[in-house]
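Subgroup meeting minutes
Present: P.N., E.W., G.H.
Scribe: E.W.

1. P.N. recapped why we're keeping a running log of single-chain structure predictions: easier to compare across weeks, and new members can see raw inputs and outputs side by side.
2. G.H. added today's entry (196 aa).
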Amino acid sequence: RVVDDIMLVSEAEIERAVSLLIGIEKTVVEGAGAAGLAAIIADPHRFRERKVGLVLCGGNIDSRLLASVLTRELARDGRLARLAIDIPDRPGQLARVAGVIGSAGANIVEVYHQRVFTDLPAKGTELNLVIETRDAGHLTATVTAMEKAGYRVVVEDRLGWGKSSKAILPYSISLHASNTASLMDHLGIERAAIVG
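Output recorded in log:
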């Protein structure tokens, strides 16, 4: 026999493997070249206490795809997060939010104000931020600082990445609608508008 077994790995495990190889080994490989490490990530107990050799091959990965993989991994690790914050639409509020985030040691990467397409009162606005933190613990500390400053903060969770205990699931609109309804029930939100 030439092959004893074949393992299938998910796209998320391949992305994680590509990112780990760059981050730790400083080695760029394409998805197929990272499949061996992805298999170890998928089932670490299978390889525990065994000598394992990985063949790393193929650096044929598009730079935009590589940037996307690395950015998505930052989000999975809690080092890059998208926040939605309801704030009063008054001068100085954005600076106040930025001050709280800066004092917590986090960095704002993107800012988007939503004044029109929201169910908030006319004197309110939804502030959407992408922030950069050191790790998931730092993200939690930053959100806690925001909450202590009086803001209600919603952090997007990526179904299994970050601190969620849920497994990574394939995306479907019915799953998204179900999760959104559950979150709204938990937060006591009666009505929401979905745009997109």
